[in-house]
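Let's practice the habit of predicting before peeking. Look at the sequence and jot down your guess about where helices and strands might fall. Then scroll down.
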Amino acid sequence: MRIVIADDHALFRDSLRSLLTARDLEVVGEARTGKEAIELAWQLKPDVVLMDLMMPEMDGLEATRRLAAELPDVKVIVLTASDEESNLFEAIKSGAKGYLLKDLEAERFFALLEGVAKGEPALTPALARKLLDEFARPKPSAREAYDPDALTDREQEVLELMVEGVTSNRKLASELGVSENTVKFHVRNILDKLHLHNRAQVVGYALRHRLVESPPE
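Done guessing? Here is the structure:
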């Protein structure tokens, strides 16, 4: 199996490369951004890209979407510290063939990676259950989902900043003068209250339903 590692943390890449090569798996390239991951995938045509989500220039979700569309034979496996359900759902919808957390035990990681070569998804039972529950859940109609009074004043502030293009936890926290954990809490509440899965959907929904004013051109 020929693998590209995409992660912006050099120490993690080094550790993962050592772990993979010790199991006779070939690491053919390493990327620190989503953009580099796409470029390496085009050059090297690996079997698998192990893709982190939070990277500079282009994040892992956008890189996954691009690779799924441009190089469908290259399997993208998200390998991340994020256990947010919205990231899981969006990654799978973007074309990822698996979603693994970085705290996974090595033996389980390699067993799932081996399954990818056989066409199996790389998902732990807990994450697979979340996916099944999500896709089995009936979707609310627009009328049911839309509740202009559902958001608190602080959640409304977060929503307005997201529509203005401030979407990262760090930038939102800086703008609001709160911690990133507090931002995550508010974003999670917004997603739950509006029955949406990711921040891009929130921005589109807010504009369609006029929850906030349209951002200036």
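How did you do? The chain has a mean pLDDT of 85.
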